[in-house]
Write a structure and sequence with these properties.
Elements: H1 10-24, H2 26-29, H3 37-43, H4 67-91, H5 96-119
Helix pairs in contact: 3-4, 4-5
């Protein structure tokens, strides 16, 4: 196993320091020390104590133009949060609070995905519910592309 020895080259030193800090930090295990899904998505990190802004970089904001874009953005935010919490849970499978938050985000994401499917159509190929394979009637390039 990779982490059983202390003989690491320089490439692994920083990774192990981060792993050790993450595993021993009580704050990281506290789900209340997390950004919400929206802010975590914008900052690229759900964990407040792990976010380190780059120089004078300002966080971008997204302004949906319609209900469809609003739902798409919410799905992206929730999917990001689910993925980030999944990475944490890989190292801390015993953290019940974080697992409960993980399940909550999954349930919320599924609700938005269902709303999107009902309003727009399939989000993924696995969302096809009709009796034919032709699940998209008008392809974007048939409408003149991005017009």
């Amino acid at each position: 196993m990779l982490f059983e020895t202390n003989n690491f080259d320089d490439n692994y030193g920083m990774d192990l320091a981060f792993l050790n800090m993450t595993m021993n930090s009580k704050e990281s295990k506290n789900p209340h020390n997390l950004y919400d899904a929206k802010e975590g998505f914008l900052k690229g990190n759900m964990f407040k104590d792990e976010f380190d802004p780059y120089k004078n970089y300002s966080i971008a904001t997204f302004i949906p133009k319609n209900k469809k874009e609003e739902i798409e953005l919410k799905i992206m935010e929730l999917d990001f949060a689910i993925n980030d919490l999944n990475l944490y849970l890989d190292l801390h499978p015993e953290d019940k609070d974080m697992f409960d938050l993980f399940k909550k985000y999954i349930k919320e994401a599924n609700r938005y995905k269902e709303e999107y499917i009902n309003m727009v159509g399939p989000l993924c190929i696995t969302d096809v519910t009709s009796n034919s394979y032709n699940w998209l009637s008008d392809w974007p390039w048939e409408k003149g592309g991005n017009i």
